[in-house]
Specification:
The complex is a heterodimer. Chain A is α/β, with parallel strands linked by helices. Chain A has two domains: 120 residues, Aspartate Aminotransferase, domain 1 (Alpha-Beta Complex); 261 residues, Aspartate Aminotransferase, domain 2. Chain A is built from 14 helices and 15 strands. Chain A has a seven-stranded mixed sheet with strand order 2-8-7-6-5-3-4. A four-stranded antiparallel sheet of chain A has the order 11-12-15-14. Chain A has a two-stranded parallel ribbon with strand order 1-13. In chain A, α11 packs across α14. Chain A starts with 7 loop residues before the first helix and ends with a helix. The relative contact order of chain A is 0.14. Chain B is α/β, with parallel strands linked by helices. Chain B contains 14 helices and twelve strands. In chain B, the strands form three sheets. Chain B has a seven-stranded mixed sheet with strand order 1-7-6-5-4-2-3, with helices on both faces. A three-stranded antiparallel sheet of chain B has the order 10-12-11. Chain B has a two-stranded antiparallel sheet with strand order 8-9. The longest helix of chain B is centred in the last third of the chain and has 37 residues. The chains are: A alpha/beta, B alpha/beta. At the A-B interface, α1, α2, α3, α4 and α5 of A face α2, α3, α4, α5 and α6 of B. Chain A: It catalyses: N(6)-[(R)-lipoyl]-L-lysyl-[glycine-cleavage complex H protein] + glycine + H(+) = N(6)-[(R)-S(8)-aminomethyldihydrolipoyl]-L-lysyl-[glycine-cleavage complex H protein] + CO2. Chain A: Keywords: Oxidoreductase. Chain A: Belongs to the GcvP family. N-terminal subunit subfamily. Chain A: This is Probable glycine dehydrogenase (decarboxylating) subunit 1.
Chain lengths: 453, 522
């Protein structure tokens, strides 16, 4: 077995040193009734590299990869081009096969990278401090709600109707166990998000208002107005971003008054990967909230010789010190995905991110105009970045399934996201990125023309 | 934005200040192949980019609804060659399992096969959207389904929740399943019992899920005190969270008796499965009465730890808990088609009372492909050998060290996959920390220190199954020599490491005056 270096000679020599007659003697503490005498039945025996690769390739080929389709899916996961050097760097063994940097003297590579990552995210979000990453956007969103509970000592959570429904479900699930009361709403179809309705739901018991920006329908809510209303009632504004590329073109949530900014970092460097691993981003606008943040933080310090170095810090907030008093049970972060994000962001830089965002927006505007010209299609949004909603009379779920047969992945149907809301069944979220070609847009338009006529 | 300080960076080592162990100072601060590296903010600027993108006409159509950005972000950019150099230099300041022996107890640092990486990058897995139509992702769903079957068979359990994103997220999933099951029968229990030797995340998880946490002491043999546990059981106890093999590296021989007692009292048994690699293929937790257990795919099934993540923590569930597992999940029907059950129709597949959703999508697909690849490579026979070799290597270290280093439970019998030592008999002023830093100078990543909490100055050594006897023998020689130095009072240990990229870092200053992001110098 190619991964197991011990030979039978080694094994008997080691058993001699231990003073055991056989390896079975090392399992004496396992109750006899639970000990298996041979390999578990119904599972295959070991296989060579070539056979395993063939089996997995077979499974891989049963999927339609985004690159092989005209591709318009978004709703919280976006297809962007990742430069080849990003994957090269994250496959360097010293990054790939390192552990949590508990021995900072021999983990400066990871630590300095995390410090740089924190600095990049803080700037992107317009915040003072970002942490060293969380599992994904949806769990980071929940952690922000839990943090607002700790900060305000209040339990009423006002969710915007236009928050990604899966994010809202994660918050609802977790809140059941922490006694937070969720005041959420279903989204309403409209060209503009319903800020007034949202603001009307904020009261003196509200811990936080959670608003997605751009929102689930691709619209751009005015966060400033909501921040003012939340602050007037002593509540925190949590802004959720699922498409960080957008922040190259639109104002940062911190700049607009959000207190906690969380999001999904997958767009930069990580890739689609059928939903995971992704990268949770988490930042606070004001430094005073740092000690209430969940997750890891990397800080700058010096070593005994006075050289600059980095360590994990403020870890009393983490599970491994205070156990049941920890602010969160989070233990893992998404270190390698954070590295991919950071490398990609460094390659982009200010200039590249701005150009990338502009190109995404340009192509999305072209797509919106061309789709609006398809008979039977209405573009819902007044404003958007690279994703918008179109409406038509047919059931979008069926349209999506039918078009997939011709290798057109047309978008995410609102019916899939909101199975209980009949009014949404003709809604389709269409996302466009720099990987979309004008030919792809034509293909989608022609297919819809045919389908809807 | 202030223009990043492109030319102002200087190495922080002043000329002539290197100490006795550092040799002569260099003007650059570099030492041959060990190169000092500035922050990207100090070498990059806001005009450089390492990607080729079109310059979009600024007068082009804009639908940003008044939200167009006007302020600069302040992001530094590097051209590709400089970026590759920056990160390559940083990487060289890291210790990873590819570089050498990494015996971090409870963390399971085993070899990461590159076939797993190759497979995870196949376009059908890497370039697939989570909300793609189900017909177009049968292979990806097939991986989830096949992996779920392996986990069920290896653990002897009934169902599995695949979506938790890490071990601690899995713990939360298991406790939420327990809570949902109790609530379904109208039973509002408030307490979770956690033995002293459990992982630190266990009590944090129980508290996070709204439970009161009570400790159960360990007995003299480093195991759960069965009598104390039985005495505490009652109608207010929702669950016992137990780590088995436990964090002292020992198997809990009373596991079946513990499960029976907990079940009789109407509670559930959560088993922390972080140490599953010690028993995989040899013992099925289902046979021991476990109701829920997370499996750290990254530990037992070798997905790379990546400097602290991502992890993956599917949770196997007993028949009693399976109906409560979270959404989404997969179900294969008789015609071979795999359904992705999100909301509609959950009850048709036996998930009558799913407690909700834990994450936006379907879990750590990239980790699933790696873990399944590892399982297929080993097979049932190889996985059994994995457990045996991991246990053999740990016991070999235990017995090779116990004459020089205090081994608190060495008389309690064999250890499982990790050997536990304490700091008794060290000379004044020298601690476990010093010994660990001494090992760094010998070229080893230290063991886990000061954990578990039940042993003074604890050291937890986990070799795993992917180390050769020669590697372990070399480590034992080095480990013994550093122990002898600690006992003899060699004060050079107090200032170790001397040969690492950094000497000891001032962690107190980092916490007292937190500096958590780069600030422009002016």
């Amino acid at each position: 077995m190619r991964y197991l270096p011990l030979t039978d000679t080694d094994r008997s020599a080691m058993l001699d040193t231990i003073g055991a007659a056989s390896v079975d003697d090392l399992f004496v503490d396992v109750p006899e009734v639970a000990r298996l005498d041979g390999p578990i039945r119904d599972l295959p025996m070991h296989a060579g590299e070539m056979a395993v690769e063939k089996h997995m390739r077979g499974l891989s080929k049963q999927n339609l990869a985004a690159a092989d389709a005209a591709f318009f899916l978004g709703a919280g996961a976006y297809r962007h081009h990742v430069p080849a050097s990003v994957d090269h760097i994250i496959q360097r063994g010293e990054f790939l096969t390192a552990y949590t940097p508990y021995q900072p003297e021999i983990a400066q590579g990871t630590l300095q990278m995390l410090f740089e990552f924190q600095s990049q995210v803080a700037r992107l979000y317009g915040c003072a401090v970002a942490n060293a990453s969380m599992y994904d956007g949806s769990t980071a969103c929940w952690e922000a709600v839990a943090m607002a509970h700790r900060v305000t000592k209040r339990k009423r959570v006002v969710l915007s109707g236009a928050l990604h429904p899966h994010y809202a479900e994660v918050v609802r699930t977790m809140a059941k166990f922490t006694d937070d009361e969720i005041a959420g709403a279903q989204p309403a179809i409209g060209a503009q998000p319903d800020n007034e309705g949202l603001i009307a739901r904020i009261d003196d018991n509200t811990s936080c208002v959670v608003v997605q920006y751009p929102d689930i329908l691709g619209r751009l809510p005015d966060l400033e107005e909501i921040a003012e209303a939340a602050h007037a009632k002593g509540a925190l504004l949590i802004a959720v971003n699922t498409e960080p590329v957008a922040l190259g073109a639109i104002k940062s949530p911190g700049e607009l008054g959000a207190d906690i900014v969380v999001g999904e970092g997958q767009s930069i460097g990580v890739g689609l990967q059928f939903g995971g691993p992704y990268l949770g981003l988490f930042a606070v606008r004001d430094k005073k909230h740092v000690r209430q943040m969940p997750g890891r933080l990397c800080g700058e310090t010096v070593d005994a010789d006075g050289k600059r170095g980095f360590v994990l810090t403020l870890s009393t907030r983490e599970q491994h010190i205070r156990r049941e008093k920890a602010t969160s049970n989070i233990c893992t972060n998404s270190g390698l995905c954070a590295l991919a994000f950071s490398v990609h962001m460094t390659l982009l830089g200010e200039k590249g991110l701005r150009q990338l965002a502009a190109e995404n927006h340009r192509l999305a505007c072209i797509a919106a105009d061309k789709l609006a010209a398809v008979p039977g299609v209405t573009v819902l949004n007044d404003s958007f970045f690279n994703e918008f909603t179109i409406m038509f009379d047919a059931d979008a779920r069926q349209v999506v399934r039918d078009l997939a047969e011709d290798k057109i992945l047309a978008g995410v149907s609102l019916g899939r996201l909101y199975p209980d809301v009949d009014a949404f069944s003709g809604g389709l979220l269409v996302a466009v990125t720099e990987t979309t070609t004008e030919e792809d847009i034509e293909t989608l338009c022609s297919a819809l023309k045919e389908k809807l006529s | 934005m202030n223009a990043p300080n492109k030319s102002g960076w200087k190495p922080t080592t002043p000329a002539g200040t290197d100490g006795a162990f550092g040799g002569p100072a260099t003007t650059t601060g570099n030492k041959a192949l060990m190169l000092e590296e500035p922050l990207i903010f100090e070498i990059a600027d806001n005009q450089t980019t390492g990607v080729d993108l079109p310059q979009v006409d600024p007068s082009a159509a804009s639908r940003l609804g008044g939200m167009a950005r006007d302020a600069d972000i302040g992001l530094p950019g590097l051209a590709e060659p400089e970026a590759v150099r920056h990160y390559t230099r940083l990487s060289r300041q890291n210790y990873g399992i590819d570089l050498g022996f990494f015996p971090l107890g409870s963390c399971t640092m085993k070899h990461n096969p590159r076939l797993n990486e190759k497979v995870a990058r196949m376009p059908g897995f890497a370039d697939v959207h989570p909300l793609a139509p189900t017909d177009t992702v049968q292979g990806a769903l097939g991986v989830i389904n096949e992996l779920a079957e392996w986990l069920i068979k290896l653990t002897g359990m009934h169902g599995v929740a695949m979506s938790p994103k890490a071990g601690a997220h899995g713990e939360l999933c298991g406790i939420l399943c327990i809570r949902a099951a109790l609530e379904a029968r109208g039973d509002a229990r408030e307490v979770v019992l956690v033995p002293e030797s459990a992982h630190g995340t266990n009590p944090a998880t129980a508290a996070f899920a709204g439970y009161k946490v009570e400790n159960i002491p360990a007995n003299e043999a480093g195991r759960v005190d069965l009598d104390a546990l039985k005495a505490r059981l009652g109608p207010d106890v929702a669950a016992v969270m137990i780590t088995n093999p436990n964090t002292c590296g020992l198997f809990e021989p009373d596991m079946r008796a513990i499960s029976d007692a907990v079940h009789e009292a109407g509670g559930f048994v959560y088993c922390d499965g972080a140490n599953f690699n010690a028993i995989v293929g040899r013992v099925r937790p289902g046979d021991l009465g476990v109701d829920a257990m997370h499996i750290n795919l990254h530990k037992t099934f070798s997905t790379p730890h990546g400097g602290g993540g991502p992890g993956s923590g599917p949770v196997v569930l007993s028949e009693a808990l399976s109906p409560y597992g979270p959404l989404p999940f997969t179900a294969r029907t008789d015609d071979g088609y795999i359904h992705l059950v999100e909301e509609e129709g959950a009850a048709d597949y036996g998930h009558t009372q799913a407690f909700g959703r834990m994450t936006a999508f379907h879990g750590q697909m990239g980790m699933f492909t790696r873990a399944l690849t590892y399982m297929l490579s080993h097979g049932a026979d190889g996985l059994k050998q994995v457990a045996e070799d991991a246990v053999l290597n740990a016991n070999y270290i235990l017995r090779s060290m116990e004459d020089v280093l205090y081994a608190p439970y060495a008389d309690s019998g064999p250890c499982m996959h990790e050997a536990l030592f304490g700091d008794k008999d060290f000379a004044d002023g020298l601690s476990t920390m010093d010994l660990a830093k001494g090992l760094i100078d010998e070229g080893y990543h230290p063991m886990t220190m000061y954990f578990p909490l039940v042993v003074h100055g604890a050291m937890l050594v986990e070799p795993t199954e992917t180390e050769s006897k020669a590697t372990i023998d070399q480590f034992i020689t080095a480990f013994r020599s550093v122990v002898e130095r600690a006992k003899a009072g060699d004060q050079t240990l107090a200032t170790a490491p001397h040969y690492a990229p950094r000497s000891r870092l001032d962690e107190t200053m980092a916490a007292r005056k937190p500096l958590l992001s780069f600030i422009d110098p002016d």
